[in-house]
Amino acid sequence: MPLDPAVRTFLDQLTAMGLPAFETQTVEQARAAIRMMSQTGPPGEPVDHVEDQRVPGPGGSIPVRIYAPAGRRPAPALVYFHGGGWVIGGIDTHDGLCRQLANRAGATVISVDYRLAPEHKFPAAVDDCFAALGWVAGNTAALGVDPSRLAIGGDSAGGNLTAVVAQLARDRGGPRLRHQVLIYPATDPVMDFPSHTENGSGYLLTREAMAWFYGHYLRTPADRTDPLAAPLRARDLAALPPALVITAEFDPLRDEGEAYAHRLEAAGVPTTLTRYDGMIHGFVGMTDLFAQARTAVDQIAATLRAAFA
Q1: Can you list the domains of the chain with their CATH numbers?
Q2: Predicted model pTM
Q3: Any bridge partners for residue 244, and if so which?
Q4: Active-site residue 12, yes or no?
Q5: Other Cβ atoms within 10 Å of 85 Cβ, number
Q6: What is the DSSP string of 19-51?
């Protein structure tokens, strides 16, 4: 399908603004740019209760933001890992999406502000995300959360972390997860899929930007094939929680996300793969701009409600 007209308008507006590409900026400039972009949308919808906390982590305390929807307790919970190439982004940039998911899924959402590269290279983000999940599982009574109804999810780099943490939870004896939600996940840092060339420029996220992110995140070339950075390269994907994998047609990460979904299916993991035609990387967080983003959020919420039922 062709690029969605609303997406074309959005990309043309970005071009007219003359914003520099991520790979031409310093880390500090890129972080400031993503914060600015996240603040241009409408305010986040109200949630019954929102609270910031700090939880123990392997490198110090980890900030988390807890979104509790109205309704009965204990509630199910979604532990969410934000996108941003392991370098940019955070709780604030994904605040609106987490509010929507809490309300629509009827679940307490715990958004994790894991350590970022290059100050904290791989596997610091993995360690923080797994520690935060463990903290949630160990504090369900205080959180008003049902320990038997836990899920994890994330977008882009956060989708990568979701896949990795799901594998770690399986291999390290828990916590037991009901579901995993992978939104246009990065699953293979080698970047040799056709979509990296087909969609490598002109669609917001570029191949060069991904190389910039990986250059800051990974320590050595050997990390590119480490399953903790490249979940697609894990030997065994059996016995993982059911998965929803969302991809975008004009995304450099499209093929590797879909390859991961197909490997999950081949391993016997119940998996739903949905490609959103005409869309670009990052679209799910733009519900104020794209109807398909609103559809995707509704799909995620409905999937979680079914998993928690």
Answers
A1: 5-308 (3.40.50.1820)
A2: 0.97
A3: 181, 272
A4: no
A5: 23
A6: PPPGGGS-HHHHHHHHHHHHTSSPPPPP-SEEE
Q: Can you tell me the distance from the alpha carbon of 87 to that of 241, in angstroms, rounded to the nearest whole number?
A: 27
Strand partners, 247: 275
> Would you state the structure tokens that stand for residue 235, as one six-digit string?
């030997």
Residue 122 CA to residue 234 CA, distance in Å, equals 17
Residue 244 confidence class, pLDDT cut points 50, 70, 90: very high
pLDDT of residue 1: 82
Element spanning 254, H or E: helix 254-266
> Would you state the pLDDT for residue 282?
96
Q: Catalytic site residue 277?
A: no
For residue 184, give both structure tokens.
Answer: 């246009």
- The sign of the torsion formed by the CA atoms of 217, 40, 274, 180 equals positive
Active site residue: 128, 156, 196, 226, which one?
A: 156
> 179 an active-site residue?
no
Other beta carbons less than 10 A from residue 223's beta carbon: 17
**How many whole angstroms from its chain centre is CA 125?**
12
Helix (H, G, I), strand (E, B) or coil at 253: coil
- CA 284 from centroid of its chain's CA atoms: 10
Handedness of CA 149, 293, 277, 23 (dihedral sign): negative
Give the range among 7-21, 74-88, 149-163 with minimum mean pLDDT.
7-21
Distance between CA 102 and CA 110 in Å, rounded? 9
Residue/partner pairs of 137-142 with CB below 8 Å, 24 or more apart: 137/174, 137/175, 140/74, 140/77
Of the residues 82, 179, 196, 281, only one is catalytic, namely: 281
Bridge partner list, 183: 155, 246
185-237 residue pLDDT tens:
999 999 999 999 999 999 999 999 999 999 999 999 999 999 999 999 999 99
Q: Both tokens of residue 305? A: 């409600």
